[in-house]
Amino acid sequence: MTDKPMMRCAEVDEALLEYLEESLDGVSRGRVDEHVAGCLRCSAIMRDIGAIRSEAARLPELAPSRELWPEIAARIEPAVVPLAVRPKRDVPRTWIPALAAAAAVLVVATAGITYLATSRSLVPSASRVAVSKRPAESAPRSTTTEGAPGSSEPTVAGVSPPPVETTGTAPEVQPAATLASRSSGGPTSPSEVAFGDEIARLQNIVTERRRRLDPATVLVIEQSLKIIDAAVKQSRAALARDPNSGFLADQLNHALDKKVELLRTVALLPSRT
Amino acid sequence: MNIKTTLKVILTGLAFVACVTATAKAQRYYGETLDTTVMLDRQATVDLSLMSGRIEVTGGGGSSAHVRATTTRGDIRFDAGPGRIRLSVDPSGRGIGDARFELTVPAGTRVIVNSLSGSISITGVKGEVDVSSVSGSIDISDAARKVKAESVSGNVEVSNVAGDVRASSVSGRVEVDDVTGDLETESVSGRITMTRARSKYVRAGSVSGRISYAGTFEPAGTYEFKTHSGSLNLSLPEGVGAQVQVETFSGAVDSDFPVTLQPTGGGRRGSNGRIEFRIGDGRSRIVAESFSGNIKIARGDGRDSRD
């Protein structure tokens, strides 16, 4: 078939995924076929994989309803909520096709969970967000350096500070730091915009969940959100005064990240807590 | 779904099946009160979560953990195996009330706690501790390897840790005493106090909170303290050797140590508000920055800085 020597099993293993995805070039594909045709081991593997694929293909697509979300969410947060237990019967040690069928069910279920989790972006991470750091050393702060105790409100010549919000929330919607509060001021950097999107998504979920939570819990959360909003506002104001500070940019991101983390926690709380 | 994903998920499924089989042998409990003893492996993990109430974990000898839990409303959920204890409260028909968890665990146990408003005390576990609280206070002492403590408005106190510490609060106070590993502290408005630190790497940052540090400055160590409007108080022991970089825009700088002029323009304020000077052999590196807060570099062990 080709001029090259026949493939070895290890080479077939290496090419297997691309072969199954049909992304292998014609020549390589032919060499795999040639090897499989004469190799007991590899032909058995091919048969098993074929069986798994056909089993999976026959399964109906699951479309979890929106109402399932709290339960699903509770189960994908292992640090807080224990996994649901299914101890009723032991799983028999069985042959690959049986496990494959079980796994195929999991394929669909897990994909549904993953889809829900990713589509709702409930797993934020500061590292995922592009932080626009401002190197402290990149520009001098001022030509005036003599300080004195109690001196305040310095002006930074030549720098246009980003706008500083004077209120912590969108007042026309809610009082400050309610579970539905939109933000603690307008975003001033790309990273804040990214956080803002995440926060808005989570706040929608949290607003829906509010009536299912204990009033005492809601109070604690609202107070904490208020504190975080104040921290965001304070960090933002500090950054406006010292816009070259990478440290303050980090602080602002940390405060926003903390808000996302808290909202996520609330979104995942079981009802009536 | 492509075949790569399919295979990955199949492997995940197999792992899941294995987990289900393994955990089926674990001890479980569901009720309003719990008082039990569980045998634990060395360096097992204890994973606790509650909404409000109190958690007390104490390190002890032996290889068993004693667990006591009560709740005013809700159901205590308890899962235990040799390598892990999980304790939480599930809402009942009447919701969730205050809970109290009291555990005595073998030394070396890893403790993970998540709480909304409960106060948390972890003492003498001599293992890794990871605590997250929203409004409750956190108090950790006698831990090892790695300690992480986070709160939004609660105070965070960590002491006597033979390992790395990361402690933060948004508005609460952060106090860390007697740490030997890397030390990172952070707040927005809360005061940060670090005493008797023996760390080679220290990083502390606050927007408006005051930062004070007293401890050793190890050769080749790095010590960074940054605040926007809070003051910085650093206490350096006698005989310390450090290259010091101080920067402030409108705050004052006060040093008990003589500022030695250096050929590279150090020893006085540069055009960017930065002062660089050397103390002793200059082997450790200290960075202290505050935009509008005052910076004080004092001799001593910092006893007077903890008010």
What does this structure look like?
- The complex is a heterodimer of chains A (273) and B (307).
- With 273 residues, chain A is mainly alpha-helical.
- Chain A has eight helices and no strands.
- Chain B has 307 residues and is mainly beta.
- The N and C termini of chain B lie far apart (62 Å).
- The chains are: A mainly alpha (273), B mainly beta (307).
- At the A-B interface, α3, α5, α7 and α8 of A face α1 and β7 of B.
Write a concise keyword list for the protein shown above.
heterodimer, A: 273 residues, mainly alpha, 8 helices, 53% helix, B: 307 residues, mainly beta, 25-stranded mixed beta sheet, 25 strands, 7% helix, 54% strand, elongated
Q: Would you count the extended β strands of chain B for me? A: 25
Instruction: Write down the overall geometry of chain B.
Output: elongated
Helical content of chain A, roughly?
A: 40-55%
Query: What is the string of SSEs of chain A from the N terminus onward?
Result: HHHHHHHH
Total count of strands of chain A: 0
Largest interface: A-B, 68 and 69 residues
Gyration radius of chain B, in Å: 24 Å
Listing every helix as H and every strand as E from the N terminus to the C terminus, the arrangement of chain B reads: HEEEEEEEEEEEEEEEEEEEEEEEEE
Low-confidence stretches of chain B: 19-24, 263-269
Distance between the termini of chain A: 68 Å
Question: What kind of assembly state do the chains in view correspond to?
Answer: heterodimer
How far is the first residue's CA from the last residue's CA of chain B?
62 Å
Question: What is the molecular shape of chain A?
Answer: elongated
Largest sheet of chain B: 25 strands, mixed
Number of helices of chain B: 1
Q: What kind of sheet is the major sheet of chain A? A: none
